[in-house]
Amino acid sequence: MREKMHTPPPLRSVVKSNDVEDPVNRWVHRTLAYLFVRVIFRTPITPNMITLSTVFLGLIAGAAFIFGTPAAMVVGGLCLWSAAILDGADGILARAKDLHSEFGRALDGSADSLVAVFTVFPAFYHIWVTHHNPWHLVLMVPALGCTIMHLALYDFYKESYLRATRPTEGSEGHDADHIEGTVQSAREQGPIIRWAVRWILVPHLERQKALIQWLNRPAWSLSQRLQSDPRTSRIYREENRGPMQLWALISLAPHSYLMAICAIFDRLDLYLFIRVFGMNGIFVVAALWQRYATQQTIERLFGASPSTSRDVSIGTAALRPTSEQGSQV
């Protein structure tokens, strides 16, 4: 059993696919998180303890942003960056010790949400008291709203990508159509888990489904009918790897370390512009590319034409492999 090992398994076996990570998170954060896991692997520290430590670091970062001196901004930026690194360490430790559970995602998502609340609003406060620029107030609204949208979309495409391209492992979470069992099970857990599932995970998945059906409805139908087999893995990876890497650029990790860097140099106003203009530019390209990739994936997997894949009423028949395709599996 893994929990009896003296050292964790190799890094590549306890991290997600490189295709769903941005370069900094892939080569820097995950490496540092893995080194941290190696240090604490034989201690009583659990993944949930690491998750809660990210919330504590986020709280310190937010307090530092409100305090606002140059030294405090450095401390706040470093705490936020450390929280981003540890955000990967809890998952690595859980996979290394085989301690992951269906509620881990809810707890991790709740911690991420709390870190965001503890840091984003203090960051906005610091920008205002530092510059008193009304345009910053205007930009704060789309910055917050678009970030929530970006994270929901990244999470959906990441889960779909992992489900399709890892035939023996599948994805890491749920979607809005398959969450009822988790909600029922959460009632038997502690109050923290119940709160996390009810107020964080379920609203996140409902928001995610609404966004996907608005922007790329065939992708939702496709995600419900993906099969874990080598042929699906190969085709899905070939068509979706490019847009997936763009989605990774607007995920939580870049949000965290870009904000941390800007905070260290006391230029959170610069981060605001990057979030609104730079990240939304990437989002537009990713969304258009993903629509095309979804159409191509449906056509190659199920024999449906691109015009059929645009139909919002894709049925089981349209997404059922033909006999010739089935023989290729």
Blueprint of the fold:
Blueprint: H1 23-40, H2 47-67, H3 70-96, H4 104-131, H5 134-165, H6 180-186, H7 191-215, H8 217-224, H9 230-249, H10 252-264, H11 268-302, H12 306-310, H13 323-326
Helix pairs in contact: 1-3, 2-3, 2-4, 3-4, 3-10, 4-5, 4-7, 5-7, 5-9, 5-11, 7-8, 9-11, 10-11
Radius of gyration: 21 Å
Poorly predicted runs:
306-329
- Bulk shape: globular
Give the integer mean of the pLDDT values: 85
Counting helices, strands and paired strands, the structural category is mainly alpha
Total strand segments: 0
Helix content: over 70%
The succession of helices and strands, N to C, reads HHHHHHHHHHHHH
User: Span between N and C termini?
Assistant: 33 Å
How much of the sequence is in beta strands? under 5%
Most strands sheet:
none
Number of helices: 13
Brief sketch in words of this structure:
By secondary structure, the chain is mostly helical.
Descriptive report:
The protein is an all-alpha fold. The protein has 13 helices and no strands. α4 crosses α7. The longest helix has 35 residues. The chain is globular and about 60 Å long.
Highlighted features:
329 residues, 13 helices
